[in-house]
Design brief:
4 helices; 3 strands; single chain; alpha+beta; YefM-like fold; 84 residues; elongated; 2 domains
């Protein structure tokens, strides 16, 4: 995905035109900003489902590589706030 294809919208604009934002998100990713800072991404559901499937597959491959973490007393922390 190219940064040029992403639509940036202010929170106020996205809120006022949410139905339009949802329709646009079917075609292009949308980043909603608050005070000029990106706070949320809106993507279509099919893309979200593919991303979640990919993450699950990568996690499974990782776990196969390191083995069962409960046996090795290894703690895996997939922090939802961590940047990717």
């Amino acid at each position: 995905m190219k940064i040029e294809s992403i639509i940036f919208k202010s929170l106020a604009d996205a809120k006022a035109k949410f139905s339009k934002v949802v329709e646009e998100s079917k075609i292009r990713d949308i980043i909603v900003t608050k005070n000029g800072v990106p706070v949320v991404a809106i993507i279509n559901y099919e893309k979200y489902a593919r991303l979640m499937k990919f993450i699950d597959e990568i996690r499974d491959i990782y776990l196969l590589d390191i083995g069962d973490p409960s046996v090795k007393n290894v703690q895996i922390d997939f922090d939802e706030n961590e940047e990717v």
